[in-house]
């Protein structure tokens, strides 16, 4: 995942970041951000900034073009000229808008019902100071592993974009999180290693394995918080400490909500 590449929005090859070149007159051309496809969460879209009205949106202080996200449909409002979908991904809620196209797959569009997980590719727009996504393509998710893969891509791109802004390596927030032999960047070790005498790194690792192997998670729908609390709150000395750890793991992109706020899955 050195440079996020995705052909269209369903494969792992094809278009990726586009590098600008100089024109014949030696002057750099205007950047064409529409060909840059970035994986994002809804929260990142809602927190995207603009340096000026009608200017380019920025995430991690980088201009964004096309974005791709995965979320569940919560509401549908369709007309002859436009379809509006309200999507939620555990980090936020956003409206996406799609105009009919001659390239639409009618059967696929008809399958977009409430409660369906979908992948969306589009551009971030705003109306009345409220962000939405103008849809270029939308399709249902058939393999729940795609959700995990998407969240890993979001985390990777975010860390790659922000790590250079940090201080020296001794104080960097991007420490190593060890899960057996696999290491993932993105968790501040000073925050999670020891709290109140409890080894939270070990608890986080065991929690991830518990969720990954739980029978309720066989379809990628996650595990209810009551099962997590029953098995882990004693490990940290109480329910509140576990809630704090889970919130930290969510912030670092290692834990996320699935069908509702009470169900959790792991990204590793």
Describe the structure.
25% of the residues lie in helices and 30% in strands. The chain has 268 residues and is an alpha+beta fold. Strand 15 (255-257) and strand 16 form a beta hairpin. The two termini are 15 Å apart.
Secondary structure blueprint with pairings:
Blueprint: E1 37-39, H1 42-46, E2 49-50, E3 57-59, E4 62-63, E5 66-78, E6 83-88, E7 93-98, H2 106-110, E8 117-127, E9 130-140, H3 145-162, E10 175-179, E11 182-187, H4 189-192, E12 194-195, E13 198-199, H5 200-213, E14 223-224, H6 225-232, H7 239-251, E15 255-257, E16 263-266
Parallel strand pairs: 1-5, 7-9
Antiparallel strand pairs: 2-3, 3-4, 5-6, 5-8, 6-7, 8-9, 10-11, 12-13, 14-16, 15-16
**What is the first-to-last residue Cα distance?**
15 Å
CATH class of the largest domain: Mainly Beta
Helix content: 25-40%
Average pLDDT rating? 75
- Secondary-structure-based class equals alpha+beta
Radius of gyration: 20 Å
* 3D shape: globular
For this structure, what is the CATH homologous superfamily of the largest domain? Nucleic acid-binding proteins
**Count of beta strands:** 16
- Written as H for each helix and E for each strand, in order along the chain, the element string is EHEEEEEEHEEHEEHEEHEHHEE
Organism: Linnemannia exigua
Subcellular location: Nucleus
GO biological process, one term: double-strand break repair via homologous recombination
Pfam families: tRNA_anti-codon
Concise description?
By secondary structure, the protein is α+β, with helices and mostly antiparallel strands. The protein has helices at residues 42-46, 106-110, 145-162, 189-192, 200-213, 225-232, 239-251; strands spanning 37-39, 49-50, 57-59, 62-63, 66-78, 83-88, 93-98, 117-127, 130-140, 175-179, 182-187, 194-195, 198-199, 223-224, 255-257, 263-266. It is built from 7 helices and 16 strands.
């Amino acid at each position: 995942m050195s440079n996020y590449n995705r052909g269209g929005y369903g494969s792992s090859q094809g278009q990726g970041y586009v590098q600008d070149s100089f024109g014949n007159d030696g002057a750099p051309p205007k950047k064409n951000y529409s060909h840059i496809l970035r994986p994002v969460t809804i929260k990142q879209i809602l927190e995207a900034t603009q340096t000026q009205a009608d200017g380019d949106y920025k995430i991690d202080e980088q201009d964004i073009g096309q974005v791709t996200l995965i979320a569940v449909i919560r509401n549908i409002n369709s007309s002859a000229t436009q379809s509006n979908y309200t999507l939620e991904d555990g980090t936020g809620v956003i409206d996406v808008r799609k105009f009919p196209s001659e390239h639409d797959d009618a059967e696929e569009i008809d399958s977009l019902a409430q409660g369906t997980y979908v992948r969306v590719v589009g551009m971030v727009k705003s109306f009345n100071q409220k962000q939405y996504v103008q849809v270029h393509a939308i399709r249902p998710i058939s393999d729940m592993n795609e959700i995990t893969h998407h969240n890993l891509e979001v985390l990777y791109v975010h860390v790659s974009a922000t790590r250079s802004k940090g201080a020296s390596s001794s104080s960097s927030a991007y420490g190593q999180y060890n899960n057996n032999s696999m290491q993932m960047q993105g968790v501040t070790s000073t925050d999670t290693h020891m709290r109140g005498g409890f080894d939270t790194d070990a608890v986080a690792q065991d929690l991830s394995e518990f969720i990954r192997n739980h029978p309720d998670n066989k379809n990628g729908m996650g595990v209810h918080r009551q099962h997590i609390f029953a098995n882990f709150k004693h490990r940290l000395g109480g329910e509140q400490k576990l809630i704090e750890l889970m919130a930290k793991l969510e912030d670092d992109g290692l834990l996320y909500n699935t069908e509702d706020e009470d169900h959790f899955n792991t990204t590793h």
